[in-house]
Amino acid sequence: MYEFDRKLRTLIHDGMERIEVGLRTRISDRLALTDALSYLDSALFRPEFDHSTWLDTALARVERAKKRDSAIKHYARKYGEYPIWVLVEALDFSDISQLFDGMVLADQRAISESLGLVVDSDRLTAKQKGSYYRQDPLARWCEQFTVLRNICAHHGRLWNRFLTPASTNALRTITDLSSLPRGQSDRIFGAILLMSFLLRQISPGTSWPNKVRHLIESEYLPLESRSITEMGIPQEWQKLSLWNNPTS
User: Fold this and answer.
1) Distance in angstroms (rounded) separating the CA atoms of residues 77 and 66
2) Cβ contact 7:150 at 8 Å
3) 110-114 CB contacts, 8 Å cutoff, 24+ apart
4) Average pLDDT of 209-231?
């Protein structure tokens, strides 16, 4: 059980790194459409976003990173300020998640849809539409991913942990994500499913989903007194399209 959990953490951490880079790049590109220093303007973010606290943290991180990063040193010496594409390189996943959370809906939606998360809002109830048109669902999933990444980074137990709940109502309208649990997802299967989807958008042909499937089949299923439901995995999970990538 320990060996399975260790290998699962390694795979999750590897996948999360690639998702972090993909999200960081898209956020940077979106903000740079306005101005290289647009992140300094609180008016471009949600009114409830604690922009000043986030900015203090971000600038402190980039100042520390300057000591070991020649590119950051160059911008500091020549311009005295850091464009968004330099700043984001110094941020961790939590900072990126908070920044995405603070972006206005149009910016969130553009980033989310660039990752393939195109929701069919006509299939949502009136209440669900209210939530969907207030904030993109990826924002809450980024919170869960932050917790997940921290568990992996600190070698915590992963396989049967309860994670920060993330709504699935909107994402379930996407065919390849229809197997997400109804309402909310707080177990590892939901995160694995969404990670698989995102990684196929970021890195077409990735073998990551099949590596996770093989690990579950070869090292978890044979364990005595264990059930896939402990990980939030539904029955007939092996038939899901996201596990069957012909190019991997």
Assistant:
1) 10
2) no
3) 110/30, 111/23, 111/26, 111/27, 111/30, 111/136, 111/138, 112/136, 112/137, 112/138, 114/26
4) 94
Contact 153, 178 (CB under 8 A): no
Is 50 exceeded by the pLDDT of residue 62?
Answer: yes
Q: How many CB atoms within 10 Å of residue 133?
A: 12
Specify the residue for token string 């993109």. 136
* Burial class, 55, CB count within 10 angstroms (exposed 0-12 / middle 13-18 / buried 19+): middle
pLDDT digits over 141-166, tens only?
A: 999 999 999 999 999 999 999 999 99
Residue type, 150: N
Give the per-residue pLDDT at 69.
Answer: 87
Q: Where are the alpha helices (DSSP H) in the chain?
A: 2-32, 51-65, 70-78, 84-87, 93-102, 105-114, 126-132, 138-153, 188-202, 208-215
Residues 51 and 48: their CA atoms lie apart, in Å, by 9
Rounded to whole angstroms, the Cα distance separating 233 from 231 reads 5
CA distance 126 to 47: 24
Pairing label, strands 184-185, 166-167: antiparallel
Is there a contact between 172 and 182 (Cβ–Cβ < 8 Å)?
Answer: yes
Residue 176 backbone dihedrals phi, psi, to 5 degrees: -75, -5
